From TrEMBL:
It comes from Paenibacillus qinlingensis. This is 4,5-DOPA dioxygenase extradiol. GO terms for molecular function: dioxygenase activity. It holds the Pfam family LigB. Its EC number is 1.13.11.-. It is an enzyme of class 1 (oxidoreductase). The lineage of its organism: Bacteria, Bacillati, Bacillota, Bacilli, Bacillales.
Amino acid sequence: MISPIFVGHGSPMMALQDTACTQFLLDYGSKLSPKAIVLFTAHWETEVLTISSTNEVYDTIYDFRGFPDELFQIKYPAKGDASLAQSIGKRFEAKNIPVQFDHTRGLDHGSWVPLLRMFPTPVCPVIQISVNPYLPPAEQYRIGEALRGLDQEDILIIGSGATVHNLRALNWNATEPDAWAVAFDDWLAANMQAQNLEALFNYATEAPNAKMAVPRPEHFIPLYIAMGSGDPQRPVEIIHRSYEVGSLSYLAVSF
């Protein structure tokens, strides 16, 4: 059994840097032997949930600019699994969640950067899935619920985003995490560990500094999908916590 996780993928520079978070991801990945990985990425937004369905090696998408040339030379040659993608699609359809399939899109940096740091060499097929940031948290959670039980098949579910992701609020001179970002993550951690879904679904009005932490929810909602996919009988664990430039959160959670 491999528990679903949420990871903060931060800057694309994570692919090159040696930080507390990249060391955590390497250590965590070294202990896992997944048969497949299902990853929801904040950098693929669609109105209808879209599942990558291919048996080919994915292209590596460089969906960023202004970074060192070295970053654009990295390839992450993970393969897909069309049969597994179709099986996952049937799980969603059984819960009346519409889906569509994509046969050509590569892995964006919300996928390949954390995967590279967890598994420097691809170890298994990857199924990449889009997100719709305009669905409410309860619906994001329900999307995750459709995948419950995949962990029993040693399929690793990853929600890739960030709990605090406000690029306008980055503090480039910070030597310590910004207090407002820490307070938001503290609230999240406490309510996830208490499994207080009502509060979590209403984070926008109940969590401190919610508008600062989540100016737009595309990086935040993979957390709810990963949470929903976990066994509610298992305790929620905060498996990593660090920050860059004041408020960019690398909170990681196991469900």
